Amino acid sequence: MAGGTAINITDTVANQGSTYLTSAASTVYYYLSTDAVITNKDVCIGYRPVAGIKGGTSSTATTVILVPQGITPGTYYIGAFADATNTNYETDETNNGLAGNQITVTREVDLQMTALTGPATMVSGATASFNNTVTNSGVSKVTTGTYVYFYLSADTAVGAGDVYLGRRYAGTLAGGAASSASTSLTIPANAAAGNWHVIAVADATNLNAETDETNNALSLPLTVTQ
C-alpha cells in the first residue's frame, strides 16, 4: 500500500491488575516498526484515548489510521503501545507494546530519469537532439505536472556554475508510467573545449513530493570541440 492509505487497527488494552483498582485514563499509540519489538523510537502513526479500565477488564476499539506520506518503502509491523504517555504506575512496564500484522509500504511518487542518449561529440554553439525518458516508479499518480531540466556540467552532479540548457514538460504520470521525448539542446558558443556532461533532472522545480529525491538526475558524457 502507498502512503495516505487508510487502515483499520483494532486493539485491546487489558488491566491485569487488582479488580479493586481502576486505571487512570490513558492513550494507546500506534507505530510502524521494522521489527516485532515496539518502542517509542518507531514511527508513530496515530493514537486513541482510553478511558479508565477496571482491574480484570479491557477496552477494545477500532481506529482508522493513515499510512504516512513519504515513509521509506518496505515491510513494517503495525504495533500498539498501551499507556504510551506513562500516565499509570504499573507493576510491569515491559509488556505494554505488541506487534500485530505486517504491511508492505510501496513507493508513492518517485520520478527518475531512466534514459538519456545523444551525440558523444558536439561543436560549441551547435544544436542536437537528446532522447530522454522520465519514469514514475512509484504507485501513485503525479498530479502536478513535472518538468525535466537539462544542464551542461563539468561533472555528473548539478551544482553551482553549471549551465542551464533548456527544459521540457513531462506532464502528469500515473504510477509506473513514463514520458519519453527528443529535446533539442544548444551547447553555448563560449563553452570551452573538453570533457563535459549533459545532465537531465526530473521534477527539477520540486513540484512533487517523492519518496526518494536522490535519484532524479541522469548524466551523459559529452566532448565539446571548438
The major sheet is characterized as: 5 strands, mixed
CATH architecture of the largest domain, by name, is Sandwich
Gap from first CA to last CA: 53 Å
As a percent range, the share of strand residues is over 45%
- Biggest sheet strand order reads 8-14-13-10-11
| Unreliably modeled segments | none
Shape: rod-shaped
What is the domain tally?
2
Fourth CATH level, the homologous superfamily of the largest domain: Immunoglobulins
Strand elements, count: 14
Reading off the top of the CATH hierarchy, the class of the largest domain is best stated as: Mainly Beta
Q: Give the SSE order as H and E letters.
A: EEEEEEEEEEEEEE
Mean pLDDT: 94
CATH fold assignment of the largest domain: Immunoglobulin-like
In terms of structural class, how would the helical and strand content be classed? Answer: mainly beta
Q: In angstroms, what is the radius of gyration? A: 27 Å
Helix content: under 10%
Count the helices. How many?
0
Give a description of the structure:
With 226 residues, the protein is mostly beta strands. The protein folds into two domains: 6-105, Immunoglobulin-like (Sandwich); 111-225, Immunoglobulin-like (Sandwich), CATH 2.60.40. The protein contains no helices and 14 strands. It has strands at 6-14, 26-33, 43-50, 58-66, 74-81, 97-105, 111-117, 121-123, 127-136, 146-153, 163-171, 178-186, 194-202, 217-225. A five-stranded mixed β-sheet has the order 8-14-13-10-11, with no helix packed on it. It has a four-stranded antiparallel β-sheet with strand order 3-2-5-6, with no helix packed on it. A three-stranded antiparallel β-sheet has the order 7-9-12, with no helix packed on it. The radius of gyration is 27 Å and the shape is rod-shaped.
